[in-house]
Amino acid sequence: MNKRIRILGKVQGVFFRKSTLDKARELSLRGWVKNETDGSVLVEIEGTPEALAVMEDWLQTGPKGARVKETVVEEGEEKGYADFEIRK
Predict the structure, then answer these.
(1) pLDDT at 7
(2) Number of domains in the chain
């Protein structure tokens, strides 16, 4: 299962990408996270439905210091990522 999630709010400059990387690896998810020029964070993740549900819940709040206003979730085709990484 693959999901692309855009997180809006105060989500840059609060270690959101690093915290997302740590959480994704804890849940054995694969994919990537990156900052967007509009101030949002974009995540593409693959894994079991249970792990994706936990990650979606976590992304509603994010790390300490973040203020998530909205998450936009789209389901997509699996791409077969090997690991989870931070993209620039």
Answers:
(1) 98
(2) 1
